[in-house]
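Aim 2, interim progress. The first record below pairs a target sequence with its C-alpha cells.
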Amino acid sequence: TKWQLQKEARRLVGGRLKTCCANSYQKNGSGQVYYSQATNRTFWHGLITCGQVWLCPVCSVKISSRRLQEIKIALDDEQTQWMMMTFTVQHHKGDRLETLIDDLNASIRKLYQSRVWKNIKKEYGLIGGISGFEIRYSEKSGWHPHRHVIFAFERNKEINAKIASDIRLQAQGV
C-alpha cells in the first residue's frame, strides 16, 4: 500500500518525510477527521505533510490528483489550443543518468532562453505549457530521460506542422 511505501521511503531518505501524514504531528494541534459526501470517504485535515511529490507515496497521490484537475480545467479552455512535443537527448548504454538529465535540462533551458524561442512565442501566441519528466531504461540503450510538454497557444493563431518544425530545428541547434 502507499503507507508501506511511505514507511520504506521514510527509512531510506528520512528528512521531511519523518513528519508526514501517517505521523501524529499536527499543525497547531488541530488535526481533524472529515467526511466527504461527494466521494463517500473520510480524510484527515490539518496534518503536517511533507509535500514531496516524487518521494512520498501519500503526498504524491494528493498532489497528482490536484494537478490532474488543474490540467483538465486548462485543457477544456476553449480559448486555447494545445500541441504536445517530447524533448530528449542522445543516449547510449553506459551513459550516466545524472549527466543525461543535466544535458537535457541545459538544452531545454537554452532553448527557452533563445531569441528564436522568443520569436516563436510571439509569432504563434504561445501562452505556456505543462511538462512532465520521464525516465526509461532498457538493457539495449541504457537510460532514456525525456520531457513531455503540452504547449498552450492562443486559439486565434494558426498552429500547424511549421511550428513543430521550427521548435525542433531550434532544439537541435542548442
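The second target in this work package is listed in the same format:
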Amino acid sequence: YIDADGATSSSLFYVAAPSQTTGNIIHIDTPALNTGNAINIASIDALTTGSAITVDAGGTTLASTAAGGLVEFMYDGAGTGTNNLLYIKNNSTSAVNTTGLFIDQNASANSISIDSDSATAEVIHIVTPLNTTANVMSISDCNSLTSGGILGVESNSPDNTSSRNLVKINNDNA
C-alpha cells in the first residue's frame, strides 16, 4: 500500500533497471484471480494532458514478428462464453469528437492487418442500429492514387460447385 496524499509531481512508483537485458521488469502472477482486475487505473478524471498508459520504444532492432508485437494481448482459455480481448468504450454521449480507435501509421505498411481462422463467422462485423444520416463506412480523401485503387476484392477459391457471393448488397425494406 502506497499513500502519497499531497504529492503533486514526479513519480510515486519508479523502477529503474538500466542494466537488465532479459527477463521481466514487473511480473504479476495471479492464477487464482477470478473477480476484479490485475491492474486497475481508476478515477483519473482530472487528466487533461498525457495518457493513462504510455509505451515508448525507439529501438531499431525490435524483434517482433508476425506472432508478436510491442504490445501483446494473449488469451488461451477454452471457455465458450462471450469474451472481448480488447474492449474500447466511450461511455459519454456528449463526447462527440472522441474517436474510439485512432491509428496513425507513418510507415508505408499496413495500418490494419487481420489474420482470421474464422470459418463460419464474419471477420469484420459492424453493428450500427442508431446511425440514421451518416455513412456506416466511409473511405475518403484517396486523392494521391495513381495506379492503385480504393477497394480491392479478391477470391481464389478452388470450389466451383458451391454458391457464394463475392459482394452482396441487400436492402430489406426497399
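The CA atoms of residues 74 and 91 lie 25 Å apart. This observation will shape the mutagenesis plan for the next reporting period.
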